[in-house]
Amino acid sequence: DGGRSEEAAVARVYGEIASAYEVLYPSLHRYGDRVERFLADVMKPGMRVLDVGCGPALHTRGLDASVDVVGLDLAPEMLELAKRSRPSGTWRVHSYLEPVPEDLGTFDVVLVIGCLDFCDDLPRVLGHLGRVMKPGARMLFTVLERRPGVEAHEASTRRVRTADTDVTLHLWSAEETARAVAAA
Questions:
Q1: Residues 6+ apart with CB under 8 A from 184
Q2: What global pTM score does this model have?
Q3: pLDDT given at position 77
């Protein structure tokens, strides 16, 4: 089904944890202050930011009011939280498997934090994002890196059981990630 059932499972899991996400976030956050440092380095007033897998807009809610934030997520429940935390933003349910809708325009900054862990076609998704980046735009994304010799990294995918739904995590080698970036 082109990944649609897997995507629906991810949306279901994040929809179920949406109300507790911010409480859980410190234990889920493995990026330290890297996202905040990146944004502090690249953001200027009036820029446009695309936040893919935005969740409750934790990374973009505090940006300057002149910054135009567009957030995409699979879970409507997460988008409701994002709308509350940054009412001026544009928030849409969107599959990262599909191109970013043209009516959203182009962006100076793209954030893709934590959601590519569920992506089975990294070159395709990065290609979609590359097409909406303005010349000179910057992107920060995260992937789960597959490392030889590390427990649970033997395969490129790992099935994970949540409360009532299984989801697949994808682990990308550094070489696969570099090829995906180059292709995008």
A1: 123, 126, 127, 129, 130
A2: 0.90
A3: 95
